[in-house]
Amino acid sequence: MLQPGHISIARHGPSCEPTKFLSRTWVENIFVKNGTDKFLELGTTVERAVKEGDECVLTLRKEGPGKDYWWREWFDALVVATGHYNRVIVVGGSVSSHEVLHEILPQVQHPVYASIRVEPIPAFGWAPFKHPHVSIKKQISSLDPLTGKVSFADGSELNDVDHIVFGTGYTFSLPWLPRVQERISKAYRRLPGVYQHTWDIEDPTLTFVGMLGGGFTFRVYEWQAVAVARHLAGRANPLPPTAEQRDWEEQRVAKFKGSKDYYSIAPDYGSYLEFLRNIASEPKPGTTGRTLPPFDKKWLDIWKGMVTYKIRGFEREARRAEEELIRLKPRL
């Protein structure tokens, strides 16, 4: 069975660079080999180090479930070998933000700060963020480019932040399509003048794939691609009249305004995939075109199962971290 640090070697061969897992194992083995592991104090932050007489006094802090533990220790000398830790803020409450958050948790300084404006994505809720090494903050209100200070809407502040990761989704920007970009600049966080998130209403030879969200990501992109390819090849069923397409957009704007709700296909996955399948129609006899199968409700069960599986994984990670904090609780 592969150890975590050997996965890269298995994938990319023995010449790949050492991973952090291998480096950590190497350092841990040095302590164990020399019997000095009993002096290790892990999961601990040095909050302050001052010289009092001939001794160095360290103020130490260890995170615990619900509260932190603080204490002081005295030493004859101090060696500063902290390396370059990273203090990170991850902005956003959707899939990309919590995926990044959990990828970097084992590698960066704790806590990692999650800046969330309102509520996280409903499918996952707060589960990805309920972790003893994750500190939840309100939205960022300002950044000071000179000092690096980050201010939040609740009045709290953070200094010495190394990285801010924006996992907030995106506002459409297509500067290389000036005509479309001009329309975008006049709309609220959406791609206007596009029917069913795919066909430009003014010019249906201009199409968009992937400008939507809400789930079934890659399957929807595939259905879009097939429908677009067949439409451009003149082998698809016709699009509705332009007036009907504009009516679809107007109704959607009235209901959702803009932002992520406008281009989310949830929870109408079935009807949207079936619409694309109907436009695509069947491939021409004798060709190798893709036949799109009818929507199967089992797909929705599989997708929901994936979400449930991930949520349980986040919960397991949080429990392990809490247990580790309890195990490392200093004996005061």
Automatic annotation (TrEMBL):
Q: Which PANTHER family match?
A: DIMETHYLANILINE MONOOXYGENASE (PTHR23023)
Q: Does the keyword Flavoprotein apply?
A: yes
A GO MF term: flavin adenine dinucleotide binding
Q: Which Pfam families match?
A: FMO-like (PF00743)
| UniProt keyword list | FAD, Flavoprotein, Monooxygenase, Oxidoreductase
| Protein name stated in the entry | Thiol-specific monooxygenase
The UniProt similarity line reads: Belongs to the FMO family.
Q: Which organism is it from?
A: Diaporthe helianthi
Per the record, the domain of life is: Eukaryota
**Entry keyword Flavoprotein:** yes
